[in-house]
Design a protein that fits this description.
The strands form 2 sheets. This protein has a 5-stranded mixed β-sheet, with no helix packed on it. A 5-stranded mixed β-sheet has the order 4-10-9-6-7. It has helices spanning 2-31, 40-66, 68-71, 80-111, 127-156, 267-274, 305-314, 318-321, 331-343, and strands at residues 164-171, 174-179, 214-215, 219-222, 227-233, 238-242, 247-251, 257-261, 281-285, 297-303. It has 9 helices and 10 strands. α2 runs antiparallel to α4 (80-111) and α4 (80-111) runs antiparallel to α5. It is an alpha+beta fold. The longest helix has 32 residues, at 80-111. It has a domain at 164-344: Cupredoxins -  blue copper proteins (Immunoglobulin-like).
């Protein structure tokens, strides 16, 4: 470790000495005490711009092609097609501009390197050119933004009435998943009721709708039917990211968010398409939320609607697995809770 620090220190010292030398040279040029303005390094630096252009440009294209399948994941939702279309249109527009501007950026230092035989042209302004390079980008960006806004409005609009509701709650460092039971209505929650052992979501069982709520280690959702993720956080900022569904939404403490989508391929169908029997859809956290950020992963399992209904009927509510949660309820709710518990035994 000390050897590394010493090496870094030596390099910094050499760099400093070189910079001092260059500054002295430039000062001499300004004062007119150094008649030789352009040295051999002028041509070398100009040539290096061209070398970097082709070297870095080639590396960019090679890496983009090589890793294409890793950043262009197979699509598993309806709205994802719109998201992908917006992405590739934006990439095409900005990519063309990026390539053209960087070719000019690195070719110009070579083509117009300093020469005593050439005198620079004084070109203070051009109003027509300034209008063009202001209006054209503004129009193009407005079109891109409007397209994105329309897609975002559809995604964040109220979900269809028949959407299957799933609550995704982030906390350090895991996701807690809550389903509303057969009534498809989630019960209330209260952060003051959070208990790490038996009520991590802080479910308020004085709400009748909460009596059939249940949790699951896997997010199970049906293919071809709308699904509404109700998203919240218990402690710090998290972000729900399901890449194959083209789904990303922040989980913010005290500010619930939502995202609805329709899966188009079951897990089994995606495994067959990819030839990978170990493939799983997943939720990951894309906000660095602490030391255990890496562990925030939850599997999504997409199944056929009939299979989903069978799975739903097999799930047991919180209060069945832990009757102590409703021991102190008012008598009328306690009676209803006991009936619910009896139905699942």
């Amino acid at each position: 470790m000390y050897g590394f620090l010493i090496a870094v220190g030596v390099l910094l010292l050499l760099s400093l000495i070189w910079m001092v030398y260059r500054i002295q040279t430039l000062v001499s040029v300004v004062k007119g005490s150094d008649k030789k303005i352009a040295s051999s390094s002028n041509k070398v630096n100009a040539l290096l711009f061209v070398v970097f252009l082709f070297g870095a440009g080639g590396l960019m294209f090679w890496y983009s092609i090589k890793e294409f399948d890793n950043y262009n994941l197979p699509l598993g939702s309806e709205h994802g097609a719109v998201t992908d279309q917006l992405f590739w249109i934006t990439m095409a527009v900005t990519g063309v501009v990026f390539i053209i501007t960087h070719i000019l950026l690195f070719i110009f230092p070579y083509k117009y390197q300093y020469s005593e035989k050439r005198k620079a042209t004084f070109y203070p302004d051009n109003n027509k050119l300034e209008v063009i390079w202001t209006v054209v980008p503004a129009v193009v960006l407005a079109i891109l933004v409007i397209g994105g806004w329309k897609a975002w409005s559809d995604i964040t609009a109220p979900a269809p009435e028949n959407a299957h509701v799933v609550e995704i709650m982030g906390y350090q460092f895991a996701w807690e998943v809550r389903y509303p039971g057969l009534d498809n209505v989630l019960g209330d929650h209260d952060y003051r009721l959070v208990n790490e052992v038996n009520n991590p979501s802080g479910v308020d069982f004085t709400d009748r709708n909460a009596l059939d709520d249940f949790t699951s280690p896997v997010v199970v959702i049906p293919k071809g039917e709308p699904v509404l993720f109700k998203i919240r956080a218990r402690d710090v900022l998290h972000s729900v990211f399901a890449p194959h569904m083209r789904l990303k939404m922040d989980a913010v403490p005290g500010m619930p968010t939502r995202f609805w989508f329709t899966p188009t391929k079951t897990t089994a169908e995606m495994r067959q398409e990819l030839g990978d029997e170990e493939f799983v859809y997943e939720i990951a956290c894309t906000e660095i939320c602490g030391r255990g950020h890496f562990s925030m992963r939850r599997e999504i399992r997409v199944v056929e609607p009939a299979e989903y209904q069978e799975w739903l009927k097999e799930q047991k509510p919180y209060i069945v697995n832990n009757p102590a949660l409703v021991e102190n309820l008012p008598s009328d709710l306690k009676e209803l809770a006991d009936i619910t518990i009896g139905e699942y035994k």
